[in-house]
Design goal:
Pfam families: Response_reg (PF00072). The protein is α/β, with parallel strands linked by helices. The chain is about 45% helix and about 20% strand.
Length: about 120
């Protein structure tokens, strides 16, 4: 699978990248929301993983842009904020899953496997 990661925390970004590459996935790294949206316009990715709080455009704005583009892809949202309001808003806007930081890379892989083609 080709997976876009949108995360401004370099340690989390590299941890996710390492785990996904080890599992045989292709990865595109973006470090802010604007870069993620531009990449999504240019590339056909199979899954997006995005932090909610990021520079230039939030994960919610990325989710909205995906819908505006008419792309049908699963989106896993990451956030240090586990507030119910934020989680519900993300799901209302079409998020496929939501993980509160800190999280285990193994848990993320289990969640990604749900979206892999059979």
């Amino acid at each position: 699978m080709l997976i876009l990661i949108a995360e401004d925390d370099e340690l989390i970004l590299k941890t996710i990248e390492h785990k996904l590459l080890k599992e045989g996935h292709e990865v595109i790294l973006t470090r802010n929301g604007k870069e993620a949206i531009e990449t999504l316009k240019e590339k056909d990715v199979d899954l997006a993983i995005t932090d909610i709080m990021m520079p230039f455009a939030s994960g919610i704005e990325i989710l909205s842009a995906i819908q505006t583009m008419g792309k049908q892809l699963p989106v896993i949202m990451l956030s240090g904020m586990g507030q119910e309001e934020v989680v519900l808003n993300a799901f209302d806007l079409g998020a496929s899953d939501f993980i509160v930081k800190p999280f285990s890379p193994n848990e993320l892989m289990l969640r990604i496997k749900r979206f892999m083609p059979k």
